[in-house]
Amino acid sequence: MKKTFSKIAFFASIPVLFFTTVSYKSDFFEIAKQLEIFTTLFKELNMNYVDETNPADLMDTAINAMLEDLDPYTHYWNEQEVQAARIDNAGEYTGIGATVGIKADKIVILEPYKDYPADKAGLKAGDEIIKIGNINVADFNEDAGELLKGAPNTSIDLTFKRRGEIKTTSLTRGAVEIKAVPYYKLLEDNTAYIVLSQFNRNASAETIKALKELKDQGADKVILDLRGNPGGLLSEAINVANIFVPEGQLITSTKSAVEKYNQSFSTTRKPIDTEIPVVVLINGRSASASEIVAGSLQDLDRAVVIGARSFGKGLVQRPKELTYGTQLKVTISRYYTPSGRCIQALDYTRRDTEGNAVRLTSKDYNEFKTRNGRKVYDGGGIAPDIKLETSEFSDITNAILQENAIFDYATNYYYQHELKTPEAFEFTDKDYSDFLKYLETTDFNFTTATEKELEEVMAAAEKEGYQQEISADIKEILGSISSSKEQALTSKKAEIKSLLSEEIIKRYFYKEGLYDYYVKENPEILKAKEVLKDQAQYKNILKG
Q1: Beta partners for residue 278, in sequence order
Q2: Which of 79, 379, 387, 456 is deepest in the core (most CB within 10 A)?
Q3: What is the pLDDT of residues 10-19, one digit of tens each?
Q4: Which range (21-30, 76-85, 327-336) has the least confidence?
Q5: Gene Ontology cellular component (predicted)?
């Protein structure tokens, strides 16, 4: 019955959330009609349903069912989520100082921050919190992560499980600063290496501070690392690009069905340095504001982009205030790079048989030109000028990540090996063989897109009576796919080893140690240094 209601509410409640922005585009009578239908349905259902109903739960179901059919970035925020978004943008909050994963019966510590409360209390990545104060996480029906939050200088007792052993600890909550630039360093060849991990309110200020300090130390080249940066504030993306390009330069524009959201965004400040050679590093987890920076600097031939194709999020969201402190974060437009590219990779207006948004393919891409006439394309993120295998995430790598196999293996490795410095670490072929054996113990398996297609073929063949005729051929194809999947663990060894190395290094030396390791060993940074060192190569790439 509830499922039926959610579908009715899905259609009937659409005007409730979009009335203020799109009413002028639709027939007013139709909107008023649907509002009245929904209101009367909701009242009658709550008054007459055979069992007791919870109006708030029913409404949440209706709202979420409606938004589920749109893109994944348009969603409803309750009061707690509104506050969390403000914290993300502000760059500071009060808590335990750790990244955590929330599961049904436990909270997993993913990464404790150095010298913050969780770290001081002895918590380590892989620890599973099962009790907070007197509350069992498994018995808590709401978001258990909220139990970790609280006022500054308040204490909490934690019971956690480490490798099967139950332990306890206490910690005092404190202010946690989320740095947009968690690491910067002058490398030995006078290259400024700057990691920009998110676009909060401090992103451009921290990047400028880092660059000025490193230039004072003698930096004459820059590596801006945007790998894994999920984005953030559009204004900060403009300001970061402004560091390297002149005032008044178009960085991005937005196009929408609502005219007032059609805007152009140009730089408004004096730049820090418009001549210093720049390399930008990106990968498949660089999204949104990261893609604005990388795409604009590429279009303006201001930087060489190295790594792997970025995520492809070319949609812009804006929060709309609702009642009782809630908000609707709604997608209002698409953004475009200076050359005119929209880098959105998924088309949410088209769905496959499983209901997933269709990914644009290369045949759908359109060609554009950079300022110097280089060919660039839309439709699927920012493609790097120099593509590196170690930056890419293949299907099998994504499947391994989804199973948390790399995280869990790193936990085991940490408790079985001693490591004194990042420089002393080497993930050998023997270690990789050990990882493959570990995968076997986890019953790891993943289904390829081809296998899914074959399942549909078999179902259709069975319905039409052709199953017997094609079963031998299907079996042979599945055997070939199985063999290819096994080979993928070998052919994608470089990217998997790179991820394993990163996760293991963080266990011993935190994120700071990981970056110290990066500047010596990371293939993308080594390639960036090589390109910057060879100025003829650097200029030729930008000339096309």
Answers
A1: 222
A2: 379
A3: 333 333 344 4
A4: 21-30
A5: outer membrane-bounded periplasmic space
Q: What are the percentages of helix, strand and coil residues in the chain, rounded to 5?
A: 45, 20, 35
3-state DSSP assignment of residue 258: coil
Q: Which residue has the tokens 């029906």?
A: 141
- pLDDT 10s digits, 267-308: 999 999 999 999 999 999 999 999 999 999 999 999 999 999
CA distance 99 to 272: 34
Opening angle at CA 119, ends 114 and 121, nearest 5: 155
Domain boundaries, the chain: 2-69, 92-177, 183-387, 395-445+492-524, 449-490
8 A C-beta contact, residue 321 and residue 264: no
**Angstrom distance (rounded) from CA 197 to CA 218:** 24
Q: What is the pTM of this model?
A: 0.82
Helix (H) or strand (E) run with residue 369 in it: strand 367-369
2-25 per-residue burial string, b: 16 or more CB within 10 A, e: under 16: eeebbebbbebbbbbbbeebeeee
- Output the CA angle 445-447-448, nearest 5 degrees: 130
Q: Locate 420 and state its tokens.
A: 């004194």
Instruction: Please identify every residue annotated as catalytic.
Output: 288, 299, 313
Signed CA dihedral, 374, 379, 382, 388: sign only? negative
Structure tokens belonging to residue 416: 């079985």
CA-angle at 470, arms to 464 and 473, nearest 5°: 155
Tell me the fold of 183-387.
2-enoyl-CoA Hydratase; Chain A, domain 1 (3.90.226)
**Do 92-177 and 183-387 come out as alike in CATH topology?**
no
Write the Ramachandran bin of 152: left for phi over 0, alpha for psi from -120 to 50, otherwise beta: beta
Q: Cβ-count burial of 388 within 10 angstroms (0-12 exposed, 13-18 middle, 19+ buried)?
A: buried
Two structure tokens written together for 134? 């007197």
